[in-house]
Amino acid sequence: MVTPSGPVVTPSGLVVLTDRTLSVRPLPETVAAAVRGGAEWVLLRERDLPPSRRTALAAALRAVLPPGRLIVAGPDPLGGNAVHLAERDRSPAESGERPALVGRSCHAPAPGAEGGTSHSDVDYVTVSPVYPTTTKPGYGPALTPAGAAAIAGDRRWLALGGIDTADRARACADAGAAGIAVLGAVMRASDPERVAGALSAAFADARARTGVRSGR
Q1: 20 to 30 A Cα–Cα from 135, which one of 2, 5, 55, 183?
Q2: In a domain, 66, yes or no
């Protein structure tokens, strides 16, 4: 891991979260199809796998993604340089090493001092659940896009949770999200390329309409 020395490219557009237990196809096939449809980033979860299998899976996913577009959940980037941390995970900076890209999950305003961090140590946050989600039934309450934006404040943020229609993707863009993080709608799809295409196009159109550009 290295400390970034220049501007960091942060996730935007459609970000696909993985769950091999839900994927209709082998996970690399689902991810490749989503990328063809317009997914710009992938966040590898699968934290139940042993390290060797998870590292091999990370390599397989990197083979179907543009360079640098795989983010790994947890503190170990598995040979890459991008991680996504749980809300109360310790900052990588505390160990003296920081990957080039660090994200963090966020479900409420800045956590309290007991076991939490201010989130000032990260490049972006995911805010969830924006909508009710079938992947985690009962997880919530749903924040709504406006509620998620209020929690994110001035931090760059991705909307996560229940974003399974074009209308919901557009609503997140209108609320100021830099991207939409999607799991179930893509993993469960018989045609992940079509689903990814519909969601990414709707989000991009709404961002363009509001005059906001994704990117750095």
Answers
A1: 55
A2: yes
Domain containing residue 154: CATH number: 3.20.20.70
Q: Contact 108/119 with Cβ under 8 angstroms?
A: no
Q: Which pLDDT band, with edges at 50, 70 and 90, does 114 fall under?
A: very low
Residue 78 has which token pair?
A: 């598995």
Residues 6+ apart with CB under 8 A from 202: 166, 167, 169, 170, 173
Q: Is residue 4 one of the residues assigned to a domain?
A: no
- Looking at the predicted structure, is the pLDDT value of residue 196 above 60? yes
pLDDT at 5 over 70: no
Question: Per-residue b/e over 4-19, b at no fewer than 16 CB within 10 Å?
Answer: eeeeeebbbbbbbbbb
> Would you say residue 215 lies in a domain?
no
Which residues touch 83 (CB under 8 Å, ≥6 apart)? 71, 72, 73, 74, 75, 76, 77, 92, 99, 101, 102, 103
User: In this structure, are residues 17 and 169 in contact, taking their beta carbons and an 8 Å threshold?
Assistant: no
- Mean pLDDT, the chain, whole residue set: 89
The arithmetic mean of pLDDT across residues 112-134, rounded, is: 74
Residue with tokens 């100021």, as numbered in its chain: 176
Rounded Cα distance between 81 and 21, Å, is 26
- Give pLDDT, residue 115: 37
